[in-house]
Amino acid sequence: METAISIYLESYKQVCNQITDEELAYISKGLTISEFKTKQFYLKAGQIQTAIGYVVTGLMRSFYIDDKGNEITIGFIKENEYSTDYGAFIRQKPSKYYFQCLEPSVVVNLPYTVMQEGYHLYKNIERYGRLVTEEVLVQQQSRLESFLFEKADERYLNFIKRRPDVFNRISLTYLSSYLGIERQSLSRIRKMLSQK
Question: Is this model's pTM higher than 0.70 or not?
Fold first, then answer.
């Protein structure tokens, strides 16, 4: 368990190398660790996420259920990434999304209250939070623009290029849902590209 916390604290140093031992000690005092089996949920729609989760090992899928009962995948969260519906988390509102483990996962949890207090007490914790938030915003913007400006085959190729570490760990069903195309269409795209 200490290893999971060490990995998490190391992420602070990598993002914000000015962070002090005092600031890391402050963060450490509020951390908890959760372990999940495949198919278990880290968060369900309707729940308020009281701690932001940092995936130390494992892989999760975030999705929502549309009005026809279909699960629509909106993201994959792997090691060294945060598992959160960030907009709902920072407002402490119920999430609209499910976060389900695709692999056994170990998650370090930082409580919302500790995070917010840390922002007020320590400038480097606030800086870290800002840098992580900026990265989340960039990822969301990239995803939105992929639907606006890329064709299905381009989304597929760009996913492989951007997320090679995730590509071989997910099913075609989840990938096609994430890319916004039917599974049969994804199979056709894959076949067409393999023939080029």
Answer: yes
For residue 36, what are the β-bridge partners?
Answer: 105
What radius of gyration do the chain's Cα atoms show?
A: 18
Place of tokens 């623009």: 145
45 neighbors 64 (Cβ within 8 angstroms): yes
Can you tell me the distance from the alpha carbon of 145 to that of 143, in angstroms, rounded to the nearest whole number? 5
The 10s digit of each residue's pLDDT in 98-126 is 999 999 999 999 999 999 999 999 999 99
DSSP structure string for the chain: -HHHHHHHHHHHHHH-TT--HHHHHHHHHT-EEEEE-TT-EEE-TT-B--EEEEEEE-EEEEEEE-TTS-EEEEEEEETTEEES-HHHHHHT-B-S-EEEESS-EEEEEEEHHHHHHHHHH-HHHHHHHHHHHHHHHHHHHHHHHHHHH--HHHHHHHHHHH-HHHHTTS-HHHHHHHHTS-HHHHHHHHHHHHT-
- Architecture of 2-112 per CATH? Sandwich (2.60)
Secondary structure class of 124 (helix, strand, coil): helix
pLDDT tens digits, one per residue of 126-168: 999 999 889 888 888 998 999 899 999 999 999 999 999 999 9
Domain ranges of the chain: 2-112
